[in-house]
Recover the amino acids of this structure.
């Protein structure tokens, strides 16, 4: 099933897409009708299903080959970023309220509502502007923090949802069908935060006045509904990254039905102009499979992933990775056994019940058991150490020191050591004073060993590189660099080292294919092309020199 721009009946370039799957275009209704008997067999290769645990989900109804587009969908609503970091709240460059272009706060304002726009001519949606203009005034202070607090972009996302009630009854109905976890959210920190940041802000600044001035414009804009919308966003929003670096949030009727798994089988991309989502099969999908994406970070250990999913999406994941204490043999959550006072032990501690946050951790070699509370405390302490080191652009030496300390208590593949090692492989060969040519052969070997360890973990967690394509590409490029350096040092074996380098770069090219639409993926792909060119050049130079040397003899 490939998206085509030509009408399948007459072959003429066509613009009207099948509204159901958006994969086939027709020149007119007549040709669409004529083609339906054939097209209906492949129009939508999945169905919407319902399950007491999962809620609504999507199930494959006919085999889909890896790489095929499963569906393309328009967003129900697109708006500003939902989770604003401290840096976002203090930023002086913010997305334009009309077109999301980055603009300087305070430079241009919408003539009517005074919200930040990229130029005096940039207009935004009329209804939204008229509601925002009810709160128009002058912020008490003009510093970035105060302005961002005055023009709250996360609250604007909720307002955009609310206005669908008036703008598009069909989209509004689809939005209200989405899961909100209203009951579970009540009384939680998320609810309290939403009340402070969004609900009371919208009510006091805009909606209170709207009710007085235009009581019939919206049927409902009360606090209960606003909290429900916050829950719908929290449960369903997808992050859309624009080439400008601006992050938007999107809600999609169908794409948001895809369930979570810690090893997904689908990936997705967004059109940077229309924000349409295209969902693609990350591997071969069989009839009966569920379409699965990941809602969390697959490079975290099970307890951290579970905690994140429970907190934000209100469910416990029971996928095969979460149920496996070794997480597909990666040991990414495992601790090293410290033994007891009488005897050290080389064993590994794994959770007895990976789904229970308070479970005991058992050594696979000796009878040692460790308490869940102790492990949680340890994890928190280590997270703080790793985060604080990483925040400061550490040197290889600083990373090595923390890695040595953590390695005494963690499995070599633990996600904290994984993170430190992934940083190290990029520092060795690139840090000033640690350029490739200056590394000892031991350091080169170590870099290669670290790359292999990281590569193997990535392959087990994500065999089809659905989520980790960029990570894996970085590792493969670092392996290639190291092999090229080995070739320079041992010209006699140069061609075999260069062949190894080339094979890794070619592998990276295939892996990265999935990420070509993303900003980071595109940038890395350009770098990769240069690397492949340089490697081929080195191979040619080596062959030329070898022939010349033979000729001279
Ligand atoms: C983005 S929505 C998915 C669509 C949702 N099931 C519906 O009916 O609208 C996310 C919610 O679906 C449910 N869900 C998704 N994946 C799940 C999984 N693997 N196990 C249990 N519940 C899941 C959770 O309630 C979660 O908060």
């Amino acid at each position: 099933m490939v998206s085509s721009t030509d009408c399948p009946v007459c072959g003429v370039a066509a613009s009207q897409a099948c509204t159901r799957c958006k994969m086939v275009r027709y020149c007119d209704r007549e040709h669409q009708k004529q083609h339906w008997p054939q097209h209906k067999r492949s129009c939508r290769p999945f169905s919407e299903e319902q399950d007491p645990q999962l809620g609504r989900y999507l199930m494959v109804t006919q085999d889909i080959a890896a790489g095929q587009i499963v569906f393309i969908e328009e967003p129900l609503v697109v708006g500003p970023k939902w989770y604003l970091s401290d840096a976002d709240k203090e930023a002086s460059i913010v997305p334009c309220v009309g077109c999301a272009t980055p603009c300087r706060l305070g430079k241009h304002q919408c003539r009517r509502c005074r919200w930040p726009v990229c130029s005096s001519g940039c207009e935004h949606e009329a209804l939204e502007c008229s509601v925002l203009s009810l709160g128009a005034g002058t912020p008490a202070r003009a510093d970035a923090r105060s302005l961002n607090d005055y023009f709250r972009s996360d609250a604007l996302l909720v307002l955009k949802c609310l206005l669908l009630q008036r703008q598009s009854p069909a989209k509004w109905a689809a939005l209200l069908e989405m899961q909100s976890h209203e009951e579970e959210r009540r009384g939680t920190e998320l609810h309290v935060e939403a009340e402070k940041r969004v609900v009371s802000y919208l009510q006091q600044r805009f909606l209170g006045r709207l009710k007085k001035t235009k009581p019939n414009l919206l049927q409902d804009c009360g606090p209960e509904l606003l909290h429900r919308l916050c829950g719908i966003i929290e449960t369903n929003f997808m992050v859309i990254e624009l080439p400008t670096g601006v992050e938007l949030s999107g809600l999609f009727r169908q794409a948001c039905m895809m369930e979570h798994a810690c090893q997904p089988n689908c990936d997705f991309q967004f059109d940077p102009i229309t924000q349409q989502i295209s969902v693609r099969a990350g591997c071969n999908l069989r009839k009966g499979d569920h379409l699965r994406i990941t809602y969390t970070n697959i490079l975290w250990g099970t307890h951290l992933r579970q905690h994140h999913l429970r907190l934000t999406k209100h469910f416990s994941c029971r996928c095969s990775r979460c149920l496996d204490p070794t997480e597909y043999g990666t040991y990414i959550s495992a601790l090293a056994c410290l033994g007891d006072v009488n005897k050290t032990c080389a064993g590994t501690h794994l959770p007895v019940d990976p789904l229970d946050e308070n479970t005991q951790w058992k050594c696979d070699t000796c009878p040692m058991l460790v308490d869940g509370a102790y492990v949680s405390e340890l994890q928190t302490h280590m997270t703080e150490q790793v985060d604080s080191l990483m925040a400061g652009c550490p040197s290889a030496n600083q990373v090595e020191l923390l890695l040595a300390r953590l390695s005494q208590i963690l499995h070599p593949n633990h996600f904290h050591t994984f993170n430190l090692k992934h940083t190290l492989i990029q520092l060795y060969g690139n840090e000033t004073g640690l350029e490739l040519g200056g590394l000892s052969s031991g350091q080169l070997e170590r870099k290669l060993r670290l790359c292999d360890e990281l590569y193997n973990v990535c392959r087990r967690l994500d065999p089809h590189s659905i989520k980790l394509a960029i990570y894996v590409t970085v590792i493969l490029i670092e392996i290639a660099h190291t092999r090229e350096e080995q070739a320079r040092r041992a010209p006699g074996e140069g061609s075999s080292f260069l062949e190894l380098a080339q094979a890794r770069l070619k592998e990276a090219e295939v892996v990265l294919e999935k990420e070509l639409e993303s900003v980071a993926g595109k940038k890395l792909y350009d770098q990769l092309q240069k690397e492949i060119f340089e490697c081929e050049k080195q191979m040619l130079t080596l062959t030329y020199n070898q022939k010349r040397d033979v000729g001279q003899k």
